[in-house]
């Protein structure tokens, strides 16, 4: 079973565009980067783009059950028949495991698997180089923006450092690959 990028876009639009327009702008920009990259990824390209569209659906007020968006999003997608890889990629996107520990839902996130592939790194790259309103941000600026937006006491900020090595590693592997395929200046 697969998830077409156009179907993923429609699903995300219904869940986010009206209720969370700023988050929707972020998602549109993340998916735009994923679409550019997808052309160079052969059979995994559509999977990357489709996952980029739905990666933040867990923020939608209608399905925020635990309040931890990677988990709420992954469970929603699983329950609505999304392919397992999409579900797993959403559950673990952008070092979600580190936040899950801080948020107290690590056991629940363990329902899913972190596939640790190039595709996963590239999804993290698209997300972690895009600001909350869709602007293009360097990775370090994006991390600083998260820290500032949530404040020092929020679990997201506390989790930033716990996941930082893994985030940096994913960004750096992505950059090597993007340079090799000539996309480094475009995304
Ligand atoms: Fe995101």
UniProtKB/TrEMBL annotation:
<dbReference type="InterPro" id="IPR006675">
    <property type="entry name" value="HDIG_dom"/>
</dbReference>
<protein>
    <submittedName>
        <fullName>HD domain-containing protein</fullName>
    </submittedName>
</protein>
<dbReference type="InterPro" id="IPR006674">
    <property type="entry name" value="HD_domain"/>
</dbReference>
<dbReference type="Pfam" id="PF01966">
    <property type="entry name" value="HD"/>
</dbReference>
<feature type="domain" description="HD">
    <location>
        <begin position="23"/>
        <end position="107"/>
    </location>
</feature>
């Amino acid at each position: 079973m697969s998830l077409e990028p156009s179907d993923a876009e429609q699903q995300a639009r219904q869940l986010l565009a009206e209720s969370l327009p700023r988050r929707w702008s972020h998602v549109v920009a993340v998916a735009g980067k994923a679409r550019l990259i997808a052309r160079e990824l052969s059979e995994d390209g559509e999977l990357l783009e489709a996952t980029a569209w739905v990666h933040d659906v867990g923020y939608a007020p209608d399905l925020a059950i635990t309040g931890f968006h990677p988990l709420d999003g992954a469970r929603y997608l699983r329950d609505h028949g999304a392919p397992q890889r999409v579900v797993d990629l959403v559950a673990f996107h952008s070092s979600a495991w580190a936040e899950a520990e801080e948020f107290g839902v690590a056991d629940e996130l363990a329902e899913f698997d972190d596939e640790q592939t190039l595709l996963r790194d590239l999804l993290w790259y698209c997300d972690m180089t895009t600001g909350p309103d869709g602007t293009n941000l360097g990775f370090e600026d994006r991390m600083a923006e998260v820290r500032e937006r949530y404040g020092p006491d929020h679990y997201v900020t506390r989790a930033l450092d716990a996941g930082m090595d893994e985030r940096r590693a994913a960004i750096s592997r992505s950059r090597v690959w993007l340079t090799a395929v000539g996309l480094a200046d475009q995304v």
